[in-house]
Amino acid sequence: MIRFENVTKRYPNQSRPALDEIDLNIERGEFVFVVGASGSGKSTLVRLTIREEVVSSGRLLVGGHDLRRMPQRKVPQLRRQVGTIFQDFRLLPNKTVQQNVAYALQVIGRPRRAIRALVPETLELVGLAGMEKRMPHELSGGEQQRVAIARAVVNKPPVLLADEPTGNLDPATSLDIVRLLRRIHDSGTTIVMATHDNVIVDELQKRVVELEAGHIIRDEEGGSYVPKAVDTRDLEEHETEREDVGEGSGPPPEDRPIGEVGALDAWDDDAEDLLR
């Protein structure tokens, strides 16, 4: 489903790659947590997977398509197959809950009959039935994230990427959101979630991929946020290496914001122009 083959990503004016020769294979139907400190490469991995960035070297396949070779005109079609959720919700502030979710279908030309059927069904799935007419500013943070999830999955994409989706939420709400993602995963959706949240990683006990300074240092099935067994000498060596790499490296590219239009899981060229 998603395969990184010796992928490196370099940003201008950075002394080290954001991702450095990583190999990673995510099969259809998996739920994978990507963990690591800020600047480790988590958000870069997400941006590459939706083709907001292009790999510097290596090969990245999504659904069998080589994203490095993909023409720009085909990128909107890719993004219709990959739902994306972000930390800051990215709702359209002048549209109701119902309109925010419907918009993801309108921009890809779905007929009105399908929209009228899919939007209520999806809002019920995420626990927002009866809130269709509310505006984003009338919702709590957890409710806004549920709208964002509804918008990402209303087109039933086979892959869902979540980049720190609980970062702005309290612990109880974060658990509610990740349990919702688990239900979506149980329906067959492949989910890749970048997170700092140790509680939800430990709660779900799914596959955990850990990044450090652009390298994969752990890939563990049924893992926890912290490795189950850590040799203290290895840990000290990792800390020393991280300090050495960090000297003079400048600010990590991890903190760069993802594009505004990245909020939608389904785009076309006209829709991107509208959102800018």
Please explain how this structure is put together.
This protein has 276 residues and is of the alpha/beta class. The chain has helices spanning 42-49, 75-79, 97-106, 112-125, 141-153, 171-186, 198-204, 232-246, 269-275; strands at 2-9, 19-26, 31-35, 57-62, 65-66, 82-86, 159-163, 190-194, 207-212, 215-220. The strands form two sheets. Strands 6-7-8-3-9-10 form a six-stranded mixed beta sheet, sandwiched between helices. It is globular. The two termini are 30 Å apart.
Concise account of the structure shown:
This protein is 34% helix and 20% strand.
With strands numbered from the N-terminus, the spatial order across the biggest sheet is 6-7-8-3-9-10
Q: How would you sum up the global shape?
A: globular
User: Average pLDDT, to the nearest integer?
Assistant: 85
Tell me the Rg in angstroms: 19 Å
Element pattern in H and E: EEEHEEHEHHHEHEHEEHH
